[in-house]
Amino acid sequence: MVVNPVNIPEGLSLPLVEEFFTLQGEGYHTGKAAYFIRLGGCDVGCSWCDTRFSWDKDLYPPVETNLIISNAVKSGADSVVVTGGEPLMWNLDYLCAGLYDNKISTFIETSGSRPLSGKWDWICLSPKRNIPPLDSICFIASELKVIIQDESDLEWAEKYRGLVSTSCMLFLQPEWSRSRIVIPQIVEYIKHNPAWRISLQAHKYMHIP
Fold first, then answer.
1. What does 104-128 look like in DSSP terms, one character per residue?
2. Where are the domains of the chain?
3. Which pLDDT does position 6 carry in this prediction?
4. If one looks up domain 5-206 in CATH, what number appears?
């Protein structure tokens, strides 16, 4: 159900781009089943972004959050990944509360450029140069996943390794269009810096959402 935009600040409606049940393809939870909720709107604007269609929030009329929650419950998934765009452009308290009421674990993937809302079992922080993350999110990130487009991004990754907690999982992920070039660089880097792991966007190799 599409609803009035007045409900968006309270999180009672959200600009839904798409929702689907699939396997997670990146980072620590690769291979696990999860229901994905992609929200519209992003002001970070990475040049290599593979979800540019989600950037313009005005293309996605607000949808009642209760309906989004209901769809996640009906899927049978035991976890939900909220992504974007930049999902923290929106108040996610109501969404998370509804998922928790239905015993569904909550994961988020964010650039960390906005204050955190919602209650999360797992926070994947993927920092971007255009708008760096807030320190407050760095401290509580469960996972740091840095996109590597060229070798200079490895220095960027180390900067944020120094800002997350010692329990945070560390991943380097090749930018898809340059993966053949940067994967060998990442492999060599991890061999000498074994705190890091590689993330390979397995969903793209499997041709699934």
1. -EEEEEE-S-S---S--SEEEE---
2. 5-206
3. 52
4. 3.20.20.70
